[in-house]
Write a structure and sequence with these properties.
Layout: E1 5-8, H1 14-27, H2 39-49, E2 57-61, E3 67-75, E4 85-92, H3 101-112, E5 120-125, H4 130-138, E6 142-153, E7 156-166
Parallel strand pairs: 4-5
Antiparallel strand pairs: 1-2, 2-3, 3-4, 5-7, 6-7
Helix pairs in contact: 1-2
């Protein structure tokens, strides 16, 4: 994947990001979203974050212009006291997994927020997902808790593992 470009996402990337993310909504419990995100909603989301130093979005773009992954930092909670805490996530198209795309995306993301007055980053992982656990641990995240059967999708309950990174 040497021809891969990691860059900040733009509103024009809405369809490409949805092309990566919506199949996870439809086919997996990796996200607890249950309805596909429209291109218009994704575009609004990207536009709302365009100038945010604490909540950047990065995409992995292949030589042919296709988006094969994205990573973002989001507000941990909308209440002001949580402003220095974020939730991070990274999603990579299954055909591009295992090629270092997530690592490169997270590298760009954490580089971008290094001076953004942030104190903690959190990641939520639905087990079993050993690749995601290993990725997060390699970036300094520590497993701090598991919420038992906190989400329901596809007719069954799922645990969520919480990971924390000191920034």
């Amino acid at each position: 994947m040497s021809a891969l470009i990691i860059r900040r996402a733009q509103a024009a990337d809405a369809a490409g990001i949805n092309g990566v993310y919506n199949p996870f909504i439809r086919d997996s419990a990796a996200t607890f979203e249950t309805a596909a995100i429209s291109e218009a909603d994704r575009r609004r989301w990207l536009e709302s974050l365009a100038q945010s130093p604490r909540h950047p979005v990065f995409v992995a773009e292949q030589r042919n212009g296709n988006i094969c992954g994205f990573a973002n930092a989001a507000a941990f909670d909308p209440r002001g006291g949580y402003a220095t805490s974020i939730k991070t996530s990274v999603f990579v198209d299954p055909a591009s997994q295992g090629q270092g795309v997530a690592r490169r995306l997270y590298g760009a993301l954490f580089g971008a927020i290094a001076d953004a007055d942030l104190h903690r980053a959190y990641a939520l992982i639905v087990p079993p997902n050993p690749a995601s656990v290993a990725l997060h641990q390699s970036f300094g995240f520590e497993h701090i808790s598991t919420l038992s059967e906190v989400g329901r999708k596809f007719g069954r309950f799922h645990d969520v593992m919480w990971f924390e990174k000191r920034l």
